[in-house]
UniProtKB/TrEMBL annotation:
The chain crosses the membrane at residues 108-127, 133-154, 175-198, 210-230, 237-255, 267-287. The keyword Transmembrane helix applies. The keyword Flavoprotein does not apply. Keywords: Membrane, Transmembrane, Transmembrane helix. This is Zf-HC2 domain-containing protein.
Length: 299
């Protein structure tokens, strides 16, 4: 048992091992017992370092180049070849993706779309005695196409677009599939409305009714979508409205409106050039979904 001396109480082991202040050093100078204990701890530390060096040895950190050189020859470093799915697997994947995107559509879009095309049918029936029935019907159907396609480009009102970053498929493919689902659904409803309108006594037959909206609807929708993706949804809505107004002006026979609409009149029809341009714009919009800048649009 240690006894205190004239230099005060003996130092604890922690004070001997850890850093020493001026008071501890002054105590060691006058206390032989604490000085002997401190030397004992120093000998223990030296012995521990010697044992560690014998058991572990010197730690040498390899350079990054040497590690990389060894990893290149490893079997796991070679890229694994992933088998491409066959035709049946691709079709099943496309069907599953389309089904998933259909479920992710805004809930109000389906009933509003059906109601809108029903209004288009009523409008065509009411104007069946007029020569402008196909034109009015085509403009109404085009407007429905624009509303449907722009609805899938509103990430701020549909936060489920965040799922794009969690899917193992490219965002461009997912967006294209979702857009295709809307376009196919709108086309089916528009064809049904055109058939019913022609059966209920419209002045134009079924092919003429379809030709009045197919090309303009695809072109106006594609133009609005590409502006929504590459700029912002409000810009896409404004661009789509401008194209629709120009198309309405081009559909008029005479007057100042017709002269204004002459800018778009060659494309405001169902032709190969119009459909090709619409397809090109949709491809550009899908490519835009893969840009890092789209995070600004997605919010």
């Amino acid at each position: 048992m240690s006894t205190p001396n004239s230099f005060g109480p003996h130092l604890s082991d922690d004070q001997l091992v850890d850093g020493r202040d001026d008071a501890a050093r002054a105590h060691l100078n006058g206390c032989a017992q604490c000085r002997a204990r401190a030397e004992g701890w120093q000998n223990v530390a030296v012995a521990a370092r010697q044992v560690s060096a014998e058991l572990v040895g010197a730690i040498r950190t390899p350079s990054f180049d040497s590690l990389l050189g060894d990893a290149v020859g490893m079997p796991w470093a070679a890229p694994a070849e992933v088998a491409r799915p066959g035709r049946r697997g691709s079709l099943l994947l496309a069907a599953a993706l389309a089904r998933t995107q259909a479920r992710l559509l805004p809930r109000a879009l389906v009933p509003l779309t059906v109601l809108g095309f029903a209004c288009c049918l009523v409008l065509a029936v009411l104007a069946k005695q007029s020569d402008t029935a196909p034109t009015v019907f085509g403009l109404a159907v085009t407007l429905m196409f624009q509303l449907g396609t722009l609805a899938v480009c509103l990430p701020r009102t549909d936060p489920r677009l965040e799922l794009f970053s969690t899917l193992p498929i490219a965002p461009a493919v997912v967006f294209a599939c979702r857009l295709l689902v809307v376009l196919v659904a709108d086309t089916v409803l528009a064809l049904l409305a055109s058939m019913l309108a022609s059966e209920l006594g419209a002045t134009a037959d079924f092919p003429a009714m379809v030709a009045g909206w197919l090309g303009p609807a695809m072109l106006a929708s594609a133009f609005g979508v590409v502006c929504a993706v590459w700029r912002s949804p409000p810009v896409g809505a404004i661009a789509g409205a401008v194209v629709w107004l120009l198309g309405a002006a081009a559909s008029s026979d005479t007057g100042p409106a017709h002269r204004i609409g002459a800018l778009i009149e060659p494309l405001w029809s169902t032709s190969a050039a119009t459909l090709a341009l619409a397809a090109l714009l949709l491809v550009i919009a899908a490519i835009g979904m893969s840009r890092p800048r789209y995070s600004v649009v997605a919010g």
